[in-house]
């Protein structure tokens, strides 16, 4: 008698072979509390993604795989994986595109990240009129009441648009390393733009004043009311959700900035750290940023004192110890 195709013969005799698994197994996903159903093949389209790694492991007790991401945009992610880049339709709204870009980045679907970056660039080009400023339609931070005095003091320091200096660069690099931040800036805010005296992780030297996060630290004007600004998720903060630096490069999602407050109480700018994904900020991290902002301000004021000495002015002798650039050696591990 011919052998049954569904049977196998071994040392224990003939028995029915176990059924083979279908090529496209159904997978249940719990994304931020909302259920999605897809196939193992779809979720494995990007082998290096978080999704592909997740479904290679064991599911939860109920048979589903849990992902702590925003369910409002996960449908777009599935559409991209099912249909591919050629047939994918991105959201029309630039803020929704930015949110989806954040989700794609966190899930490690880099082809979608690239596609959305191009889509947002095309949207920006299509809406911006020739000759219009980049911040058209976005209000930005309010102008403080002491703006005239603030700008006069900033100009008197003769630090704007000067060459890079090692001690400022060290501050940016050390803060980036200690806080594990991709971008750290020493930002000085002038009348029309903010300029970066030091920077880590950002190519640009300036941005418009209107798009400055740091300018929000200038109010209220009372020096006793000066405080740090922390925005853990920029897309959900109405003050900056439409900021060109949020919906476009560098796609700011997290911001923490401590104002650079001079000895006379004026704020010149801020020492800030930035991330492209939302995150929290602890008290210890905030205190560290405050300490380095004080140090940065001391360097700024020290440069003015040194200039007065070089020009024959009276400063009462040597620089105060807290303003002496030699008092800390960032490269020798003094921190």
Automatic annotation (TrEMBL):
PANTHER family: GAF DOMAIN-CONTAINING PROTEIN, SLR1143 PROTEIN. InterPro entries: BTB/POZ_dom (IPR000210), GAF-like_dom_sf (IPR029016), SKP1/BTB/POZ_sf (IPR011333), T1-type_BTB (IPR003131). GO terms for biological process: protein homooligomerization. Signal peptide: none annotated. SMART domains: BTB. Residues 25-124 form the BTB domain. This is BTB domain-containing protein. It comes from Zooxanthella nutricula.
């Amino acid at each position: 008698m011919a052998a049954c195709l569904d049977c196998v013969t071994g040392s224990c005799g003939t028995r029915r072979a176990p059924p083979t698994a279908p090529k496209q197994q159904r997978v249940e996903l719990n994304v931020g509390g909302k259920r999605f159903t897809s196939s193992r093949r779809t979720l494995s389209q990007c082998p290096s993604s978080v999704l592909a790694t997740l479904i290679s492991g064991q599911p939860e007790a109920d048979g589903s795989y849990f992902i702590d991401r925003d369910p409002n945009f996960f449908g777009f992610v599935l559409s991209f994986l099912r249909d591919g880049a050629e047939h994918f339709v991105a959201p029309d709204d630039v803020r929704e595109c930015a949110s989806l870009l954040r989700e794609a980045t966190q899930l490690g679907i880099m082809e979608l990240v690239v596609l959305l970056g191009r889509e947002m660039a095309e949207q920006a080009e299509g809406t911006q009129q020739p000759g219009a400023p980049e911040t058209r339609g976005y209000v930005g931070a309010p102008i403080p009441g002491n703006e005239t005095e603030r700008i006069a003091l900033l100009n008197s320091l003769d630090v704007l648009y000067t060459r890079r200096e090692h001690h400022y660069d060290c501050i940016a690099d050390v803060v980036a390393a200690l806080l594990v931040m991709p971008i750290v800036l020493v930002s000085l805010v002038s009348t029309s733009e903010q300029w970066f005296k030091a920077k880590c992780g950002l190519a640009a030297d300036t941005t418009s004043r209107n798009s400055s996060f740091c300018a929000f630290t200038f109010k209220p004007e009372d020096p006793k009311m000066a405080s740090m600004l922390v925005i853990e998720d920029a897309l959900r903060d109405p003050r900056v959700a439409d900021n060109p630096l949020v919906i476009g490069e560098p796609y700011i999602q997290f911001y923490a900035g401590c104002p650079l407050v001079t000895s006379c109480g004026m704020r010149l700018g801020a020492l800030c750290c930035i991330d492209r994904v939302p995150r929290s900020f602890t008290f210890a991290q905030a205190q560290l940023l405050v300490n380095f902002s004080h140090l940065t301000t001391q360097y700024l004021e020290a440069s003015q004192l040194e200039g007065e000495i070089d020009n024959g002015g009276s400063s009462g002798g040597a620089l105060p110890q807290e303003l002496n650039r030699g008092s800390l050696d960032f490269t020798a591990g003094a921190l």
